[in-house]
Amino acid sequence: MEGNRKKTIAMSLVAFFLVLTGLSFAWAEQYDVMKGINSVNVIFDMRDGNPQTAVIHLNLIHDAYKELFAMNKDPIFRVVFMGSAVRLISSDHRGFNAEEQKSLKEIADTISKMSRDGIFFEACLASVNYFGVDPASILLGIEQVSNGWISEIAYQARGYSLVPVY
Fold first, then answer.
1. Residue pair 69/75 in contact by the 8 Å Cβ criterion
2. How far apart are the C-alpha atoms of 33 and 39, rounded to whole Å?
3. pLDDT, tens digit, for every residue of 78-121?
4. Across-strand partners of 123?
5. Phi/psi at 88 (5° precision)
6. Cys-Cys crosslink for 100: which of 35, 51, 136, 153, Cβ 3.0 to 4.6 Å?
7. Regions of the chain short of the pLDDT cut 50
8. Are the beta carbons of 58 and 114 closer than 8 angstroms?
9. Sheet with 142-145: strands ordered across
10. How far apart, in whole angstroms, are the C-alpha atoms of residue 49 and residue 34?
């Protein structure tokens, strides 16, 4: 009896993932504009300093990456945190209420997942200094650059598309 239950659960999970995979390919076919494009390089200018909406934005960026990856578009995504958004990538949560701190944990977890998938992150040290964030408190795996604008200019000169996230 227990064996049949395990088989049923296993088959249900396999069916679920097959449907999910099928949907992914169906979505990919909806983008006629992507025909003939083999790679996508994007720089996200992340300035959303609100913890709750920043979580949503990061998840949308991650979903776009996964969708492009499923379409074999060889995506390279970079997210540059500037402005007040640098406060969201610090391990110092002083000044944030309990709900915001919950979102900050989710941001850290999401960034970790995104990094494992191959998305790159940078923090603008000019913003870090302006907003009084200790550079040592910036989450691991986030490269610290002197000026996020210079990074964005360089990436655009290398053919990256710029997507503002305000």
1. yes
2. 13
3. 999 999 999 999 999 999 999 999 999 999 999 999 999 999 99
4. 81, 144
5. -80, -15
6. 51
7. 5, 7-28
8. yes
9. 142-145, 120-124, 75-81, 40-46, 161-165
10. 31
CA distance 51 to 87: 9
Distance CA 39, CA 73 (A): 5
Helix 51-70 to helix 98-117 angle (10° resolution) is: 20
**C-beta atoms surrounding 146 within 10 Å:** 11
Contact 125, 145 (CB under 8 A): yes
Contacts of 119 (CB under 8 A, 6+ apart): 61, 62, 65, 77, 78, 79
Strand partners, 121: 79, 142
